[in-house]
Recover the amino acids of this structure.
């Protein structure tokens, strides 16, 4: 086979794979992950089921591809928010990343539900999803690492009975950060997605009206719990705007 023909087949495979995943996302929005069906995807695309199986041998393979794409998209949003606030202090970068994660979730509710909603019965995510799943968390770890290596972090209180677990988590997730910070960071990360999930799935209805302000305050409080509590020095130029006092 010539290189030209091989390249054309590769491009066609990429295009068909993208079309399959796009149709699957439409099914997620309409029916939810539990009802995702390869036969239904094939029917909507005008493909024979046997042809679709050459791209995704099972529903679980398709789910895994969608999950990796969702995690990567979320990670890219977190990284973009971090980069946009690169000249700001750690608290502002923390807040910017949290707002970037929330913005992505509100813009992609069905993909958010796929990765942080109710687990799909009978499906177990394989190890191949881990690198994509870690991207957004690594952004937060990076902010804390920069703070720790710069002005420092205030160590949150840590009960003696939790220390062995905190030490283990630190060894696994961020060996260069104090165990006290890592344990609190994991809790803060869970609380971040709790805030987003409550908003996205309706638990804040008739409870929180000004959700932007409420969210910004809540994630600011989370920043303090992980040790970002010190005053910073000098004005910092906000991205695209005049210099402002950092926070």
């Amino acid at each position: 086979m010539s290189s030209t023909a091989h390249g054309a087949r590769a491009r066609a495979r990429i295009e068909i794979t993208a079309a399959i995943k796009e149709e699957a996302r439409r099914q997620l929005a309409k029916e939810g992950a539990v009802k995702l069906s390869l036969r239904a995807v094939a029917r909507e695309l005008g493909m024979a089921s046997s042809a679709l199986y050459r791209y995704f041998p099972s529903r679980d393979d398709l789910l895994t591809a969608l999950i990796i794409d969702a995690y990567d998209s979320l990670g890219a949003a977190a990284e973009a928010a971090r980069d946009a606030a690169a000249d700001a202090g750690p608290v502002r970068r923390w807040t910017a990343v949290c707002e970037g994660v929330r913005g992505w979730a509100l813009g992609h509710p069905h993909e958010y539900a796929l990765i942080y909603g109710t687990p799909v019965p009978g499906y177990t995510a394989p190890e191949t999803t881990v690198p994509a799943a870690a991207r957004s968390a690594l952004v937060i770890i990076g902010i804390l690492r920069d703070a720790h290596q710069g002005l420092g972090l205030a160590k949150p209180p840590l009960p003696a009975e939790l220390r062995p677990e905190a030490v283990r988590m630190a060894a696994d997730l961020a060996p260069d950060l104090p165990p006290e910070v890592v344990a609190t960071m994991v809790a803060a990360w869970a609380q971040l997605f709790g805030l987003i999930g409550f908003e996205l799935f309706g638990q804040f209805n008739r409870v929180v009206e000004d959700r932007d302000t409420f969210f910004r305050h809540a994630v600011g409080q989370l920043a303090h719990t992980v040790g970002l509590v010190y005053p910073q020095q000098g004005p910092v130029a906000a991205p695209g705007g005049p210099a402002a006092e950092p926070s």
About this structure: The radius of gyration is 21 Å. Strands lie at 236-237, 243-244. The CA atoms of residues 14 and 55 lie 10 Å apart. The first strand starts at residue 236 and ends at 237.
